[in-house]
Design goal:
The protein has about 300 residues and is α+β, with helices and mostly antiparallel strands. It is built from 9 helices and 6 strands. It folds into 2 domains: about 90 residues, no CATH class; about 160 residues, 2-Layer Sandwich (Beta-Lactamase), CATH 3.30.450.40.
Length: about 300
């Protein structure tokens, strides 16, 4: 019996690869056929001396077929149970993964909202100061034409200038626009390298466009870049801002105007170098050490 059970087990394992359901069906049909062979009517077709052996073979075949049908059927049921358990496991993992994805999406949305709020607060804080500075010491809005704007640029560890606040009485000049600027171009680059930059000698772009472009080429801008400027300034002034210990440069403030005679260099030096520099250092250093630190700049979308 032990060897017969082993043979049946091996047969069952082989049949696993081809379909236990078909094997169980065939075994059942064979059992039915051998059942017919055991009948007296079937045995009467043979001579009397063969009827005994035929009966024995028929009963043996019927028994083996029955055992095979039971074994294959049992293994098929077991396989279905395992498959159902696997399906349930997969479904559970899928539901858990979907729940995790939903939770992560919610967290990302919350962080995005938080970062957007922080960025807006930073911009509002800086622009509130720039409004006071521009309308006070610089006299923005006191002329018939609002030709001026002032922008504060934070210098990030990657070597870019990030505009974190801007003010102008002219709405067309207020948009921050480009999110990053190279530290080797324009008045901002000169101020970063030399502490100070003042240039009020730019041609009128309406009358001498080529000359206007050539003057900007000295600052690293080609004609395509100049064409993209939202403000055709003819006066630029940049001032580098250091930390409160005056050891490390951390930002640049840029004042510009479409009128070349809007400010003199002495006026702007008096306002910046001898007036607002200490407060600007405190302001930018505070932002740098909190929300504008290197790990937060990219997160805030600057």
């Amino acid at each position: 019996m032990g060897k017969a059970r082993e043979r049946l087990q091996r047969i069952g394992d082989v049949i696993d690869d081809y379909g236990l359901a078909y094997a169980a069906l065939i075994s059942g049909l064979m059992f039915g056929a051998f059942g017919v062979f055991t009948s007296d009517e079937f045995r009467s077709l043979f001579p009397e001396k063969y009827q005994g052996p035929v009966k024995a073979v028929a009963f043996a075949g019927a028994g083996i077929s029955l055992v095979c049908a039971v074994v294959f059927g049992w293994k098929q049921i077991g396989q279905q149970d395992r498959f159902s358990e696997f399906e349930r496991s997969v479904e559970k993992e899928r539901e858990e993964s979907e729940a995790t994805v939903r939770e992560l999406k919610e967290q990302i949305a919350e962080l995005a909202d938080e970062n957007r709020l922080i960025a807006e607060n930073v911009q509002n804080l800086v622009e509130g100061y720039l409004f006071r500075f521009a309308t006070g010491l610089l006299g923005f809005g006191t002329r018939d034409v609002n030709s001026e704007r002032v922008t504060l640029y934070f210098h990030d560890p990657a070597g870019n200038f990030i505009p974190i606040g801007r003010y102008s009485e002219n709405q067309a000049y207020r948009q921050l626009g480009k999110s990053k600027h190279s530290n080797c171009k324009g008045c901002i680059g000169r101020a970063w390298n030399d502490d100070w930059c003042f240039d009020d000698n730019f041609a009128d772009p309406e009358r001498a466009w080529k000359g206007y472009v050539r003057q900007h080429e000295r600052y690293g801008f080609d004609e395509t870049a100049v064409e993209g400027f939202s403000m055709r300034s003819r006066l630029y002034c940049g001032c580098r801002i250091k930390d409160t210990d005056e050891n490390e440069p951390i930002a640049v403030i840029v004042i510009e105007s479409t009128e070349p005679d809007r400010f003199t260099e002495d006026e702007l030096k008096a306002a910046l170098l001898r007036g607002e520099m200490r407060f600007l250092s405190d302001l930018v250093e505070g932002l740098r050490d909190s929300v504008m630190n290197p790990s937060r700049v990219a997160e805030l979308g600057y």
